[in-house]
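Thread: Newbie trying to understand structure tokens

Hi all, I'm a second-year student working on a class project, and my supervisor (Dr. K.) asked me to get a predicted structure for one chain before our next meeting. I've only ever worked with sequences, so writing a 3D structure as a token string is new to me. If someone could post the tokens and maybe explain what I'm looking at, I'd be very grateful. Here's the chain:
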Amino acid sequence: MDDVQEKLKVLLDYWIEHNSEHEQEFRDWADKVAPSHTEVANQLQRAAARMAAASDELVKAKQALPRSKGRH
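---
Reply by user tm_fold:
Sure, no problem. This is what the structure looks like when written as tokens:
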């Protein structure tokens, strides 16, 4: 089980970082299109907020993992 937990911790770290990059990308594009495409910008901002919420859940999942024995 420790191998699974270690792999999951690595994956969670990766997913959290990956989501953060996408969230910022959505926000950047929302800013670029905002003047002429308000609805598109709004939808991109909503998607960014949902990506941030998903990342928050992934952080909680990581925190819920049991700590590995032998690590402090």
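A couple of things are worth pointing out once you decode it. The two ends are 19 Å apart (CA to CA). The chain has two helices and no strands. Feel free to ask follow-ups in this thread.
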